[in-house]
Amino acid sequence: MPAMQIERLLHSQGFGSRKECRALVRAGHVSVAGVPCDDPFADYEPGGSDGVPGLEFTIGDQPWQFRAEAYLMLHKPVGYECSLKPTFHPSVFKLLPPQMLLRGVQSIGRLDQDTTGLLLFSDNGKFIHYWSSGKKRTPKVYEVTLKHEVTPELLAALLAGVQMHDEPAPVAATACVQTGSHTLQLTLCEGKYHQVKRMIGAASNRVEALHRSRVGGLELDAQLAPGEWRWLEAADLEQLNNYS
Question: Can you name one GO molecular function term for this protein (predicted)?
């Protein structure tokens, strides 16, 4: 990327309006690569690329690295809605730093408030559209806890296709594996409303707990506790695309 004035660079990363970023620099709150900067019009090479961080800088005592575009994963906990204007529960966006909201990140798809697991975010419109599109048939893997025991008939029905209300044709799981007496791992390639719960209900059982463990070829980072997030690095973006 071409050189950027430091006020523009900070603005692009969600640290406020151009005027606010200019004031931060002039007030002496900004260091670049460990060197204080008080000139808001000083030029810096931001560097970086998709999933690769660039220039290191500090706002006050907060270290940061330039990211031309934001790609994030979050371990969504129970009790949060995937909406900027939630109705009954707090917004999942409250779990992200305010800089992310200012730079306009959006969730890629949604998880119900009582569903946990992998949730992706970005401010790249093309990336969001690509991974949100149902036509792409991205596999998503869910760990499902059921009210009643798993039976061979249940597994067979989910793989063969179940008829859900308001759907023109039966809908089948791409894969379905029993993992315990009341648990299974379900892989779906559609993104229909409440699909897992509706499919399980159509197969005469009920979902007690639901966790999304993988999207495409990308698994939820086991080091992330519920409510924690991290950047997606270049290897993560490659892994996301690496599935069959």
Answer: 16S rRNA pseudouridine(516) synthase activity
